[in-house]
Amino acid sequence: QVQLVESGGGLVQPGGSLMLSCAASGSIISINDMAWYRQAPGKQRELVAVITSGGSTNYAGSVKGRFTISRDNAKNTVALQMNSLKPEDTAVYYCNAHLTSYSGRSTYTRDYWGQGTQVTVSS
After folding, report:
1. Between the CA atoms of 96, 91, 11 and 63, what dihedral angle is there, to the nearest 10 degrees?
2. To the nearest whole percent, how much of the chain has pLDDT over 90?
3. What is the reported pLDDT for 1?
4. CA 108 to chain centre
5. Are 67 and 8 in contact (CB under 8 A)?
6. In three state form, how does the secondary structure of the chain look?
7. Residue 6 and residue 20: Cα distance in Å, rounded?
8. Alpha-carbon dihedral sign for residues 58, 98, 43, 21
9. What is the dihedral of CA 77, 72, 10, 58, to 10 degrees?
């Protein structure tokens, strides 16, 4: 029932900007951390940025100063503003949310993942 839907990926030139967004929907009670991960070809999936329900953030060293993660708790969305993009930022970007949902009278707390969106930085 819970779904995370991402949008905003695409092709950009080095030095350009792009904003990714992710919307969580379904039988959600609360959302704890929300995060963006990425996976480049031949590489392991890595954490890019995370934001807590209270708004505190943390970033991978490779993106600090260039990327900004934000969320709108009223809309159950998280965004990633990416500036000064580099070719090494090329990857599939995945939205992640640790949340509590319900089904009938039961509740479940676990991670959910978006489908991924391709970001390509190239001339």
Report:
1. 80
2. 99
3. 83
4. 21
5. no
6. CCEEEEECCEEECCCCCEEEEEEEECCEEEEEEEEEEEECCCCCCEEEEEECCCCCEEECCCCCCCEEEEEECCCCEEEEEECCCCHHHCEEEEEEEEEEEEECCEEEEEEEECCCEEEEECC
7. 7
8. negative
9. -100
